[in-house]
Amino acid sequence: MSDDEMRPAGLEGVFTDGERLYTRNSAPGKTVYGERLVTHEGVQYREWVPTRSKLAAYIRAGGRFFPFRPGTNVLYLGAASGTTASHVADIVTPGTVYCVEISPRSFRDLVPVCESRPNMVPFLADATKPSEYAFAVSSVDVVYQDIAQKGQAQIFLKNFSAFGAKSGLLVIKSRSEDVTQDPLRTYEASRKQLLSGGLRVEEVVRLDPMEKDHAMIAVTSG
Length: 222
Ligand SMILES: C[S@@+](CC[C@H](N)C(=O)[O-])C[C@H]1O[C@@H](n2cnc3c(N)ncnc32)[C@H](O)[C@@H]1O
Prior knowledge:
Helix 4 packs parallel to helix 6 (183-196). The chain is α/β, with parallel strands linked by helices. The strands form two sheets. A seven-stranded mixed beta sheet has the order 8-7-6-9-10-12-11, sandwiched between helices. A five-stranded antiparallel beta sheet has the order 1-2-3-5-4, covered by helices on one side. The longest helix is centred in the last third of the chain and has 14 residues, at 183-196. The chain folds into two domains: 3-48, Phosphorylase Kinase, domain 1 (2-Layer Sandwich); 54-220, 3-Layer(aba) Sandwich (Rossmann fold). The chain has six helices and twelve strands. The structure holds S-adenosylmethionine (SAM).
């Protein structure tokens, strides 16, 4: 790859070759979900695939509220096998990503990803019960949530205040709230719940067509 083929994408820690998105690989030589590795001027980058990661889809869809910096501590709810959480970990190194996942099956895949990235800490726990991981997480800067279950905004609010976060990103899967309701109404209802919970809503970005009937809501502590 020549010198001008990898450049900052305009958001902290996110790069582009003009077509694809990348993060710096904080575990050189390792992939997490079969993504491409590219070396440029001695630095290894991992492709960040928008159809596999809703945070990359958010960037592709024009999302610009991006609270991740080197040193940011993140509570990540619904880490699954670590696809998006690993990219967040690349960006916030040396900050910590606390990864909460309820499914033992996904957790089994998450653990080796965390083993190769010392700033990812896995918890087999339920995001509706912050007390299950509060023993190890004192406070965080950012809450990122992507859990497909009813009551997404309420679960987010509970964690946001429990850990003193200042900003966050919340994926709303419309069908998890109400399969029959127009997704736009569901996003609006979630936005209002977050406002009622005292948060300031910075952006609501629909993720279609990369993630059908999903939106990302970006918030600050208001
Ligand atoms: C859509 S997947 C997450 C994908 C992941 N965020 C990514 O981009 O790589 C949703 C995950 O949330 C988990 N989940 C659902 N309810 C949860 C809860 N109450 N607490 C923790 N995790 C939960 C599911 O087991 C599933 O792995």
